[in-house]
Specification:
heterotrimer, A alpha/beta (255), B mainly alpha (315), C mainly alpha (305), B: 315 residues, mainly alpha, two-stranded antiparallel ribbon, 2 strands, globular, C: 305 residues, 74% helix, 3% strand
Chain lengths: 255, 315, 305
Amino acid sequence: MAEPLLRVEDLVCRFGGVIATDHVSLDVHSGELHAIIGPNGAGKTTLISQLTGQLMPHSGTVRFAGQDITRLPAHRRSRLGLARSFQITSLLPDFTASDNVAMAAQAHDGHSFRFWADARKEKGLRDAAMSALSRVGLAHRADAVVSELSHGEQRELELAVALATKPQLLLLDEPMAGLGATESAQMVKLLQELRREVTIVLVEHDMNAVFALADRITVLVYGRVIACDAPAAIRQHDEVKRAYLGDQHVVTRHD
Amino acid sequence: MKAWLNARTIIVALVVAGLLLLPVYTTLSGNVFGLTLFTRIIIYALAAVSLNLIMGYGGMMSFGHAAYLGIGGYAVGILAHEGIGSGFIQWPVALAASALFALVIGALSLRTRGVYFIMITLAFAQMAYYVASGLARYGGDDGLTIYKRSDFGGLIDLSNRVQFYYLCLFCLLGGVYLVWRIVNSRFGMVVQGLRSNERRMQAIGFPVNRYKLVCFVISGTICGLAGALLANNTDFVSPASMYWTRSGDLMVMVILGGMGSLFGPVLGTIAFLLLEEALSQFTEYWALIMGPMLLLIVLFARGGIDGMLGRMRRG
Amino acid sequence: MLLVVEQFLNGLQFGLLLFLLAAGLTLVFGIMDFVNLAHGSLYMMGAYFAATFVVWTDSFILGCVLALGATLLLGILLEFVALRHLYNRDHLDHVLATFGLILFFNDAVRLIWGPAGLALPLPPWLTVPFQIMPGVYYPAYRLAIIVVALVVALLLYFVVMRTRIGMLIRAGASNREMIGALGINIKLLYTLVFGLGAALAGLAGLMQAPILTVQIGMGENILILAFVIIVIGGIGSIRGAFLAAIFVGMIDTLGRAFLPDLLRQVLSSSAASTAAPALSSMLIYLLMAIVLVVRPEGLFPAGRR
């Protein structure tokens, strides 16, 4: 079998005395939707941040598309086709929705030391922005300033921004966080469509969404991987049940 | 009513027209002082416009911008002192020296964020101040008199007040135009994106510091030009031109006018220097009024003059 | 050898003085997240108050105590009238507003005391040289500065590290939301801390006054040194400020004292004596640049978010 798209081996990250990522190994194959779940404080966001390069691991390796990217800075990884959405919405608040996406398209295009021509009039960037916005159903809000968008719209915009960098792998950090039931259902539908085009790593608290979407699920507890298997097997996994699924009030709490 | 016909554009158009026609008035009325005052205002406005590029658009709060005024000025002064009077040599050297200084201190300072950055740029500018004070050959603390203004062959005569005024105005309008092109370009979008959310920009694939540094260098270079103009205007250059209060003045001009607005810094400079001039006519202790006034502006007039003009349209 | 000991003590004395100034600055920044450029003005006011009160009361000690109280009150007044309304603004607003205050204080001093500097004469009992080791004399007043500043530094350390107020201060420096959650009267705490910072600046100013002339703008150069110190030491860290202050004081003093001689080995003597002060001033900024390259958050960053 070919090398997986993303291969994480023996990753360790400490904060002071606390081990946030404890010898984590993980494979994500091309085309799969791989969910990572775990109780609050299990180190999910820490793990994602090491994958995207916002945080450097203390040891271990991260390989992406056959290349060792463990020490690569965030912007280089993004250029290789690794995109992320943030758990707490992190957009450019004083820019319009289409400017936000156009910026990502510009990043993907790779030529930003251009000082003269009006970037807002570049057809290529605008078209890329509009197609990504349409993809997530936000085309009608293209000219709205981010701070005027609803929370649900901002989550969708996050996704559009990530898509506009034309990623091979999308790392989504709780895309459902703070969404109402209808908005969540919409997001699940959107992800159902997107998974056909791009490999996705999904960190999510919403168990219904995770079990509906995932091909495989990795369970993280106190920074350690305690199980990694298909959803049906995870449901039956004793250790997972004990450590995690039995504790429903933790599972459903968002913060 | 057309979208572009609002209080802001009307004021800007009036100010530009006024600046263009000012020499006609001063020549007819023989008011030499007015022309000298406005030459100075225009030069400082150029410096403020350059500071606005990094501060207003790029979110980099540099508290050492006066250093470039000094460096541009000393480049002209030192070359003149050594017998090189040609502006075609002096001015490129002034720009290059400013750019180099910006490159070095930018590369160091941009490793830091927030208030560290404010203090670091302040400290580096202070260092430039001490270096200039130590230049015994070029007047040290007392400064250096420039006996002959930059020579541009038969092209333009800087000793002619009106010609010099128009040169300064040309530089200012050119500077505003340049900043306008830059902020709307791909590069400018990135820089403004960095001001808005640096982490996001990094995550979508931009090497953050490279863009900031280039922006910092462009800004410093434009301010170096203002320094070369200033030295020619006063026929004198001294360490005092880069003292930290001078950097503070520049920041005040930008903020008074409105950060991140294209023409705001020009309005801010005009307001600040005219106010200073008016108050000092009225009392020797003008700063006694100016100081608390700044405090009140910060407390109650957010967004500066440009912000007020913007609100007038809606209100 | 004699000169070395003397300059070493001078460096220590200057460093301790810088610490008093930097401590207030770093506390105010660490807790209120407030950048106070007018800190140098409080230093200047301390010196002017002392010069005035010492003449009025005809007693050096009493005058200094009064001046200290006056600076404390001035600081509290300043905080109460203007600065507390700025705490939740961004740093740029702080810089601008306090820049305005500097302009105000400089001209206010010029109006009240006139443009010429003042001298603060020392009482006779402080002018005698003091024998610190056989054959080595050191001015009693400078020695007194060292002792007073050390005592104040120790007191400050005790207050910050051992008392309840200090616990709040430290908590505030590392996590501002937390003291809010503890239900503390934050406004009062802020006013107290600002007053304390002002008093420390005033103390530094009045102690420096007899050595230098009391003049307008005296607070500005030293304020920038204090900035350099808190950047090197790490903003919000008292310990960092202390070590960095001693370090900067030493480098500045020893540089000024010995660089001219060193330079004379390579340069002509006139060139050396003009280049040396500039060079020794630069040394500090060079040091700061190196620290920043290695540790962008300073040597001892107070556990900030």
